[in-house]
Amino acid sequence: MSKKRELKERVESLGDIRDILAAMKNLSVVEVAKLNRFIATQRQVVRDSEEATADFLSFFPFSLEIQEKADSQRICLLLGSERGFCGGFNDLVLRQFKSLEEISQNPELAIVVIGGRLAAKLTDDPRVQL
Question: What is the pTM (predicted TM-score) of this model?
Answer without folding.
Answer: 0.48
